Amino acid sequence: MSDNPLHTPRALNGRAPDVFRKGAWVPMREYSQNEAVDFVVIGTGAGGGPLIARLAEMGYSVIGFDAGAYFRPLEDFASDETSQSQLYWTDERLIDGANPIKMGSNNSGKAVGGSTVHFAMVSLRFRPEWFQSRTKLGYAVDWPLDWREMWRYYDKAERDLAIAGPISYPWGPKRPRYPYRAHEIGGAAEWLARGAEAMGYQWSETPLATVSAPRGDSPSCVYRGFCRVGCSTNAKQSQLVTYIPRALKAGAEIRDLAMVGRIETNAQGLATGVHYHREGQWHFQRAKQVIVAGYAIETPRLLLNSATDRFPDGLANRSGYLGRNLMVQSNQAVYGRMKEMVRWNKGPPSLTITEHWNYEDKKDFFGGYCWMAQGPLPLEWSAAVSSSRGLWGEALRQKMMDYNHQVGLKMVGEMLPSMENRVTLAEEKDQYGLPITRITYGWQDNDKTMIQHALGEMQRSLELVGAQDIWRQENDTNHLAGTARMGFSAESSVVDADCRSWDVPNLWICDGSIFPTTGGVNPSLTITAIALRTADRIQTLHRQGKITL
Amino acid sequence: MSDTLPNPLDERYPGYDVLDKRLTPSWNDATRRVIDARLAVPREARFLNALEWRTLSALCDRVMPQPTYRPPVPLAAYVDQKLLSDTRPGFRDAALPPQRETWKNGLAVFEAEAMARHDQSFHALTPSEQEALMIEAGAGRLGHAGWSAEQMQLFFNGHVLTDILGAYYAHPTAWSEIGFGGPASPRGYVRMQNDRRDPWEAIEATPETVEKTRKENRNVR
Ligand SMILES: Cc1cc2nc3c(=O)[nH]c(=O)nc-3n(C[C@H](O)[C@H](O)[C@H](O)COP(=O)(O)OP(=O)(O)OC[C@H]3O[C@@H](n4cnc5c(N)ncnc54)[C@H](O)[C@@H]3O)c2cc1C
Ligand code: SF4
């Protein structure tokens, strides 16, 4: 069928899919390959999406490239874990190290809208001190960003994404009321709340990027619970249904199924455009400025693959930091069985949260973590039960029958940066003929101490609400960050506070890879807030004559 | 029975069939398309050879033994289909070759070890003999010429278990067995609290209520 979004691009011939109407289209401006556009943005996810929209709204010519498909959620998304793996980045990547990271479903998307098409919508702000974790908390490194400025961009991101959250959030400095009311909490979420209360900790409804009342063409969330394999109703405020439609309206072009393989640089050491693969061929798009937003694996891969005689170790890699300091977040969990029928698959999976240990500093490790309620679907659940409990056969089949009685708490914890955790290129090539990545990861002592602390706390919480048959999932990680660190100097970082590379003045990186540290909350709201700030900074620098367009 | 003990029934949700909801607002067209295709999987080897298929089928029977009171999920067919289409998860342990080669090598080791120890094919061994080899593989103690025990462990835990369980719990039969609501778009759910049930959700039986529940679940859709 010619309308398979995985095989044939949809954003072509002056139009792009209207994600809100079956079979409908919206007009799209198109730029010629020979015209040097103001900005090429590689990646349309949490970082790329808002940048494309804001830069277009400021009047710049912008093309957003994505290697993934342009989905129509109302028509393309089944309620099914297996077939929805169409949203994941499933091209081969090698993993090794003491604690290899499972890639794919857990941490990287490939679609217009990026990983936000299948993310779990948890939209949290950093604790202010994390922007200065070296100075204020004594570990890792500081960010070159000021938390008060970030607070203003968080406000903006939360409004743009219509975050549904509580009237007052229990932790951190004052923030405005969330734009949409908090979602009703489900059975699994209630057990988190009761456990936290029994421990004397505060809890809250989790601020989520899915609407609790209609918004424009998005209906309210219907609590179907398939959020992590794509929202088929458009309640979820992914980039695909928020910033990308805004970008198109403002005159940006989106190129789907367009894999960028190399950034071209000239004799002056400036970027001149990108080589990309689309419809079976390589093409070249000229550009005045290039912004990479491919996330923590593909961003360093592209920059390493763009090496030249002048930049033999990859673009923007004078410091040697490119590809290093990869961070995942610890995502361990504790599960138990209740006598009640919980039916934990109903609703978004993480309806309640406690950030207690993000804001409490009396502990024997650096960094922080939160935990949230859980509601895995059967495939994910069977994999967790089997791998963590070492079960298969009849014993597993019986355990799986407790599905509707199950509850769980899952942490999102801060792993510390290490130069040894990194992304490099392997010999093997992918379907485009590009070297694939090798991802090397090992936990450090601090990470292990935190994980044990969190497992103990989550277990206590479940015990206090009377859960039975309690067990620990010790091996899970998710969310990526690092590999193109933002910093104060060209010697120890890849980009400056404005996400501009130190080495190539018209090359920028704006996605999760610029995080110097990863904090104890899910990353995407911070990525989006930084992208909104970067767009403003670009406009200011342009007005000051510090960017040539 | 103490109320915190697990329910001892094998059929926890008698009479409940996720497929009864196929034409309700819980299923959209995209879901019908993919589930119809899943149910129509050809039940034969298309990628593996005859001996590999038999070894795989034996592994499936051990990893997920199925009750005889309903048609079994054709697990080997799904694994074979996955290899045929070469659908990959997005990562590969650096110690292993690509997925197809890993599967072929791993199956060959089970067969070769069965021949070496019992002078019989893996599929002809007794279930407990098969399980013994599988346990050794999972514990990293089963290597065979050219294929290390570490590779066999990665194969067993990362491919055998993952792919077979992935096939089972992607099937409507398994969804019905565990009382999962199944596809849920566009209708979704309304009653979110503990012990609340939407009329299109399964009812769990107790040993005393099996027949009554079976009748009630027939109307769940
Ligand atoms: C299952 C899951 C649940 C999650 N839940 C949450 C959550 O609840 N809250 C939260 O804050 N975060 C969550 N995350 C993480 C969050 O989605 C990511 O941190 C965030 O989307 C990263 O943003 P990004 O812009 O860096 O990259 P992405 O959003 O991943 O976007 C990168 C895009 O770039 C494209 N790309 C890459 N390389 C190229 C190339 N060379 N050429 C063309 N295109 C390219 C990719 O196709 C992709 O679409 C979740 C992630 C997953 C996978
Ligand atoms: S629960 Fe809400 S956000 Fe999640 S998939 Fe359903 S409608 Fe979308």
TrEMBL record, chain A:
Name all Glucose-methanol-choline oxidoreductase N-terminal domain ranges. 108-328
PANTHER family, from UniProt?
LONG-CHAIN-ALCOHOL OXIDASE (PTHR46056)
| Matching Pfam families | GMC_oxred_C, GMC_oxred_N
Identify the keywords attached in UniProt to this record, alphabetized: FAD, Flavoprotein, Oxidoreductase
Q: What is the lineage of its organism?
A: Bacteria, Pseudomonadati, Pseudomonadota, Alphaproteobacteria, Acetobacterales
User: Organism, per UniProt?
Assistant: Asaia krungthepensis NRIC 0535
InterPro entries associated with the record: FAD/NAD-bd_sf (IPR036188), GMC_OxRdtase_N (IPR000172), GMC_OxRtase_C (IPR007867)
* Name of the protein in its database record: Glucose-methanol-choline oxidoreductase
Tell me the protein family, please: Belongs to the GMC oxidoreductase family.
Q: Which domain of life is it from?
A: Bacteria
Q: Locate the Glucose-methanol-choline oxidoreductase C-terminal domain: which residues?
A: 417-531
Automatic annotation (TrEMBL), chain B:
InterPro entries, per the entry: Gluconate_2DH_su3
Write out the biased-composition intervals (Basic and acidic residues): 209-221
Chain segments carrying region Disordered? 200-221
Name of the featured protein: Gluconate 2-dehydrogenase
Name the source organism.
Asaia krungthepensis NRIC 0535
